[in-house]
Structure formats: C-alpha cells, structure tokens
Design goal:
Structural class: alpha+beta
Distance between the termini: 36 Å
Helix content: 40-55%
Number of helices: 5
Shape: globular
Number of domains: 1
Number of strands: 2
Radius of gyration: 14 Å
Largest sheet: 2 strands, parallel
Length: 109
Amino acid sequence: MDNLPRRELVSAHFLAKEYRKFRALFADELRLPITYEDWLQSEARNKRAVEFAGLAHVPVTVQYLDFLEFAHERNLCPTYAAVLAYAQAVHCGGHGTPSPDETSEPEPH
C-alpha cells in the first residue's frame, strides 16, 4: 500500500495583483469572494478539508494572460471550470508552467 501514489487535488491559486481581473471575468461566480483576503481565507479552509480527507492539496498559480491564451487556444469560454482545467494542465506539464520566481508571494499569516 505504501507504494501507491498519494491522491492530489489541484486548485487554482490567484496572485493578489490579478485577483480583481479574475473577479471581473467571473462576475457571477460564487466561489470567488469579493476581496482577495476573503478568498485566501476560503482557500485555507479548503486546504485543511482536503488534507483532512487524506489528499494532497496542490495549488497552481494561474496567471491571467496565460489562462486567457490557454482558453483561446482550446476554444474554451473563460469560466471557473476552465481555470481549474488550466491548473490541472499546468500541474501535469501540458502547458507552460510559470517559474516560481515570477509567481511567488509570501504566505499570509
């Protein structure tokens, strides 16, 4: 059993400087709170729930322009579901992965 891969749940992580763009793009999306700080708190709760369930939480930074390009190339409407598909593609290596230097932000305390 120890040789089995740990199950993962990939989630989209937004940069603070781009959060308002995603909020505007997904104006009717209830999963994106109005403020970035509220979204971070929601993500922290989600992370704890995922890890409590025994899964690995894998946040993937989604950059706004890269996501729009991904959606356009695949003729996808830019929806929240498409953001999750993009995050999964980046995680699996199916799309250009942003370098950690470009995307890293300090952890909220």
